[in-house]
Specification:
- With 283 residues, the chain is an alpha/beta fold.
- It has a single domain, classed as TIM Barrel (Alpha-Beta Barrel), CATH 3.20.20.
- It has twelve helices and eight strands.
- The chain has an eight-stranded parallel β-barrel with strand order 1-2-3-4-5-6-7-8, surrounded by eight helices.
- Helix 4 packs parallel to helix 5 and helix 5 runs parallel beside helix 7.
- It is globular and about 65 Å long.
C-alpha cells in the first residue's frame, strides 16, 4: 500500500525522501497556507502549484502526485493542464468534482458539479497524458452532499472514464471506507488524519487495518504542515524570555542543527561541483 505524505516545500520533500518514501502528494492546501497565508478555499492560482512542482521535482527522486483542484476550468482546460504538469515533472495529478471555488475537503459548505461534467474532465485528463505511467486520480466530495452510495457511483463512473486512482474524501467511518474499497473498480485512496489534534471528519484508522480493508493508498494531508507549525510555535514560545530579560535561550532539542540542515540540503554535492568546475586559483 502506498503512503503519501503531503509535501509543499524543499524541507518537506527532502525529509520525506530521507525516510525512504518513493512518492508524495504535492498538497494544494499546504501550498496555499504556507505560500499565501490563506486557507484552501480556491484563492491560489494553478501557476503556484506548477511552479512548486517544477522546483521540487528537481531536488527529489520521489514521484510527486500534484493537487490540481477542480482542474481550473472545463475538460479542455484539464487536457492542457495535464500536459503542463507532465512538463513540470509531476508523476500524476488529482482532480476533484467540487464546484469552483473549492474548499478543503474537511470544511463545511462544499458542493459538487454534475457527475457527467466530471466524467468529461477525467476523460480529457486520461487522453492528454503522453506518458502512460502518468497517474490520473479522481476525487469526489459527494459523500458530504449526497451520501456514500452516490460517492461510490461517481467513483466508478470516473474509473470507467480512465481514472487510475480514486478518492472519496471525508468519509466518516471505517465502515464507509470498507464499503467503498469493496465497491469501486479501481484502487481506492483514503485521506487520513494523524493524532488527536488532527482529527477531521474521517475516523482515524491504522495503516495495517486499512490495508486489510482493501485500501491501496493513504494520504496524510495535514501531518507535516501541522507538525511544522507546532515546531515553530514551540521555538517562539521558548524564545519569549529572551525578548524581555537578559537571558540567552538554549534549547537544542527544539532545533535541527546547522550540520543536519546542510546534510539534508545536500551541501556536499554542491561543494563537490565547485571543486570540479572552479578554477584552482578561486578555490
Amino acid at each position: 500500500m502506498l503512503l503519501l505524505h503531503a509535501v509543499y516545500d524543499g524541507f518537506t520533500v527532502r525529509m520525506v525522501e530521507r525516510f525512504g518514501y518513493p512518492a508524495a502528494f504535492l498538497s494544494g492546501a499546504a501550498l496555499s497556507e504556507s505560500r499565501l497565508g490563506f486557507p484552501d478555499v480556491g484563492l491560489m492560482r494553478v501557476d503556484e502549484t506548477l511552479a512548486a512542482c517544477r522546483r521540487l521535482s528537481t531536488c527529489s527522486n520521489m514521484a510527486l502526485l500534484a493537487d490540481a483542484d477542480t482542474g481550473f476550468g472545463n475538460a479542455v482546460t484539464v487536457y492542457h493542464l495535464v500536459r503542463e504538469f507532465e512538463d513540470a515533472g509531476a508523476a500524476g495529478i488529482m482532480i476533484e468534482d467540487q464546484v469552483w471555488p473549492k474548499r478543503c475537503g474537511h470544511m463545511q459548505g462544499k458542493s459538487v458539479i454534475d457527475a457527467d461534467e466530471m466524467v468529461q474532465k477525467v476523460r480529457a485528463a486520461a487522453a492528454a497524458r503522453r506518458n502512460p505511467d502518468f497517474v490520473v486520480k479522481a476525487r469526489t466530495d459527494a459523500f458530504a452532499t449526497h451520501g456514500l452510495e452516490e460517492a461510490i457511483r461517481r467513483l466508478n463512473l470516473y474509473a470507467d472514464a480512465g481514472a487510475d486512482l480514486l478518492l472519496a474524501d471525508a468519509l466518516a467511518k471505517e465502515s464507509d471506507i470498507a464499503a467503498a474499497a469493496r465497491a469501486v473498480k479501481k484502487p481506492l485512496c483514503v485521506n487520513m488524519g494523524f493524532g488527536l489534534r488532527q482529527r477531521s471528519t474521517t475516523q482515524l484508522i491504522s495503516v495495517k487495518r486499512m490495508k486489510k480493508m482493501g485500501v491501496r493508498a493513504v494520504m496524510y494531508g495535514r501531518m507535516l504542515s501541522a507538525s511544522a507549525l507546532q515546531g515553530v510555535n514551540n521555538s517562539l514560545e521558548a524564545f519569549e524570555k529572551s525578548r524581555s530579560e537578559d537571558v540567552v535561550t538554549e534549547r537544542p532539542e527544539l532545533l535541527f542543527s546547522f550540520e543536519q540542515l546542510n546534510e539534508l540540503m545536500d551541501l556536499r554535492s554542491i561543494t563537490d561541483l565547485e571543486k570540479r568546475f572552479t578554477t584552482a586559483e578561486k578555490r
